Amino acid sequence: MSKAPDDIDAYIGARLRLRRQSLGMSQEQLGHALGLTFQQVQKYEKGLNRIGAGRLFHIAEILGVEVSFFYEGLQRSNGAEPMAEDDGIIRRFLATSEGYGLSRAFCRIDNPHTRSRLLELVRTIADSEGNADTGASRIG
Predict the structure, then answer these.
(1) Which of 69, 62, 66 is nearest to 32 (CA)?
(2) How far is it, in rounded angstroms, from Cα 41 to Cα 29?
(3) Closest CA to 82 of 9, 134, 135, 17
(4) What are the backbone angles phi and psi of residue 75, rounded to the nearest 5°?
(5) Phi/psi-derived region of residue 96, left when phi > 0, alpha when psi is between -120 and 50, beta in every other case
(6) SS3 of 107, please?
(7) What whole-number distance in Å separates Cα of residue 40 and Cα of residue 104?
(8) What is the per-residue pLDDT for 75?
(9) What is the rounded distance in angstroms from the CA atom of residue 46 to the CA atom of residue 48?
(10) Rounded distance, CA 37 to CA 102, Å?
(11) Per-residue pLDDT tens for 6-26?
(12) What is the C-alpha to C-alpha distance for residues 34 and 55, in angstroms, rounded to an integer?
C-alpha cells in the first residue's frame, strides 16, 4: 500500500519550485535533465507526487544545492513529525506566480522605509477586504 503525499511532500515541492525559478530554469529544462516530462516536475512541485531519495539527490545536484535545502524551514512539533513553520501559508503564497514575483520584487527594494510602507499598504488592502491577519487569507 503506497502512502499518499502529505504536507511535507508539498513543502519539499515548493522548495524545489523556489530554487528552480530562482535559477531561471523551466520545468521542461529540469524535466529534461532528469529524463522526465515537465508534467512530472509540475506534480513534484505541487506535492502531488512524492520525490524519492535518489531522485531528490539528483535534483539537488542539478539545482546546485545540498539535499538539506529542501528541508530548511521545517521544525519538529512535540518531538514527532516535522511541521512547516509557516503552517503552509508562505509555501502556498510562494507557489503562486504572483507570490513569487512579489517576493522577488520586494527583496530588490533596499530602502527599509519604503519596504515598511509597502507592507503597511498591503496590510491595509487585506484588512479592507476582510482578511484580518488570522492566517486564513486566500492564496491562489
Answers:
(1) 62
(2) 10
(3) 9
(4) -135, 160
(5) beta
(6) helix
(7) 26
(8) 66
(9) 5
(10) 28
(11) 788 888 998 999 899 889 999
(12) 8
Question: What are the angstrom distances between the C-alpha of 23 and each of 17, 107, 118, 121?
Answer: 10, 16, 26, 30
Alpha-carbon gap, residue 133 to 116, rounded angstroms: 17
| Residue 91 pLDDT | 64
Per DSSP bridges, beta strands 82-84 and 74-76 are antiparallel
- Cα first-last separation, the chain: 32
pLDDT digits (tens, 9 = 90+) for 85-113: 555 677 667 767 788 788 888 888 888 89
Contact 73, 85 (CB under 8 A): yes
How many residues are given for the chain?
A: 140
> What DSSP string describes 33-102?
HHT--HHHHHHHHTTSSPPPHHHHHHHHHHHTS-GGGGGTTEEESTTSSEEETTTTHHHHHHTSHHHHHH
Burial class (CB in 10 A: 0-12, 13-18, 19+), 74: middle
